[in-house]
Design goal:
CATH class of the largest domain: Mainly Beta
CATH superfamily of the largest domain: Domain of unknown function DUF1254
Number of domains: 2
Strand content: 15-25%
Number of helices: 10
Number of strands: 18
Order of helices and strands: HHEEEEEEEEEEHEHHHHHHEEEEEEHE
Length: about 450
């Protein structure tokens, strides 16, 4: 075990600021480039803090924060759910965050029926997907895993399958549990058996001394697009364990005053350098927004640190477009942004339909669904039939004799005889995400293609 104070000292030494006078040799061009790189590198850290703060920390009246080590079980996603962008509507979410500074925690999932899909995805604050105990990585017979600090050393307890650890002492889960035939009550019964226990409670031993309290920085909505972003970066860096792979970018960040263990103080920088930093942030935002609006295969952006191989831009785009997205081995996502002619999708201007021929239904082991979102917000769309997704588990879908399925994507009802296959659109820009759970080889090797969306009006 180590104290939080000692950890900060180690981090300060590892990410020491530039030597005195370094700012004098820093050009505006260099400062702008460093700020752009620093923003892209740090964006996931700040946005995962936002999610952790809203779900586990926020002390304000009316907050849904539940603290560390407790579950926040949500119902089916609706347009009112804005904690994360592009939520799915197939597997009600269960969130939890753990602080593993003092000791590890143990996650236990119960056995469930073979026909149902569940996965407990765990990420660190950098946005790396760490593991997925559940159907794909462990089966449906139940499992216990250890959630540990990157610096923890100890023996794996009996009855615990493996260790999950990242690059931060705060780990979060988005656990997905499939709804079958609208059986939310059955999902709730399963989720009531999800357990999180400190290791000492799991073993029945005395608990260690608690980790030092942290004065959490209050989250300000939309701060990520202002210069207040940098204050969150400097606050959060001491809560991470520096990875050697990141040392080059951390060293460059110190040249513009972003140093672990030191507050962000823009007033200490020359006005020209501050202007260059602001311009660098805008450069980063422009690139991220453009990439986020042109995603074809979201699965490319959700990876382990090893798979990412230093591609910080892809990591940031993934967080921007769909925070807590999962590995392609669990689910592959397709983003559909345009119609068959390459035009942006707009429910105020056109009606559309998408036809899946009988031999082109997504090849999956578990299930698939299309979910529709507004733009630029990327949230679910309010509609008169409260339908936000449609797919293989949707009751009452109508297919033709040859097995083909047509989905109607319109702002107004396509008619009573077609409403079973209707996915309502907003009166404005939208996009579609296809999620495939347990993707088959034709999806993984990219030989299967999503049929085009065609205008009908």
């Amino acid at each position: 075990m180590r104290s939080f104070t000692l950890m900060c000292a180690v981090l300060i030494a590892a990410c020491a600021p530039a030597q005195d006078g370094a700012q004098d040799s820093l050009t505006q061009e260099e400062a702008r480039a460093i700020a752009k790189e620093a923003y892209i590198f740090s964006y996931p850290l700040v946005m995962y803090y936002r999610t952790m703060y809203l779900q586990a920390i926020d002390p304000e009246p009316g907050s849904t924060a539940v603290g560390f080590g407790d579950w926040l079980h949500l119902g089916m996603s609706t347009p009112e759910d804005t904690d994360i962008v592009t939520p799915n509507n197939d597997t009600p979410y269960s969130y939890a965050w753990v602080d593993v500074r003092a000791e590890p925690w143990v996650l236990t999932l119960p056995p469930i029926e073979a026909s149902r899909f569940y996965t407990s995805q765990w990420n660190d604050l950098w946005g790396f997907v760490l593991d997925n105990p559940g159907t794909v990585f462990g089966g449906n017979d139940g499992i216990s895993v250890l959630l540990a600090s990157p610096t923890w050393e100890g023996d794996l307890p009996e009855g615990v399958d493996r260790v999950i650890r990242g690059d931060t002492d705060f780990l979060g889960t988005l656990t997905r549990t499939q709804v079958l035939d609208n059986d939310l009550a059955a999902v709730d019964a399963i989720r009531s058996q999800y357990q999180l226990q400190p290791l000492s409670a799991f073993l029945g031993t005395d608990a260690p001394a608690p980790a030092p309290a942290i004065q959490w920085k209050r989250w300000q909505e939309d701060v990520e697009r202002t210069d207040g972003f940098w204050g969150y970066v400097s606050f959060l860096l001491p809560l991470t364990i520096p990875n050697p792979e990141d040392q080059p970018v951390l060293g460059r960040m110190s040249k513009i005053g972003l140093v672990s263990g030191e507050p962000w103080n823009p007033d200490s920088l020359d006005p020209e350098i501050r202007e260059a930093i602001a311009a660098g942030m805008q450069d980063a935002l422009a690139d991220l927004d453009e990439a986020g609006n042109n995603i074809v295969d979201p699965s490319l952006y959700f990876r382990t640190r090893e798979d990412l191989a230093g591609d910080y831009f892809s990591r940031a785009v993934g967080v921007l477009a769909g925070i807590f997205g999962n590995w392609k081995s669990v689910s592959v996502y397709y983003a559909i942004l345009t119609d068959a002619e390459g035009n942006p999708l707009d429910g105020g201007q056109h009606d559309y339909q998408l036809t899946l021929p009988g031999d082109q239904v997504p090849p999956v082991k578990y299930f698939w669904s299309f979910t529709l979102y507004n733009l630029p917000q990327r949230f679910l769309v309010d509609n008169p039939i409260d339908r936000y997704s449609i797919g293989s588990a949707t009751p009452g879908l109508k297919t033709t004799e040859d097995g083909s399925l047509t989905i109607y994507l319109t702002n107004e009802s396509p008619g009573p005889d077609k409403e079973s296959n209707w996915l309502p659109t907003p009166d404005g820009p939208w996009w579609l995400v296809l999620r495939t759970y347990g993707p088959g080889e034709p999806i993984l090797d990219k030989t299967w293609k999503v049929p085009p969306i065609r205008r009908t009006r």
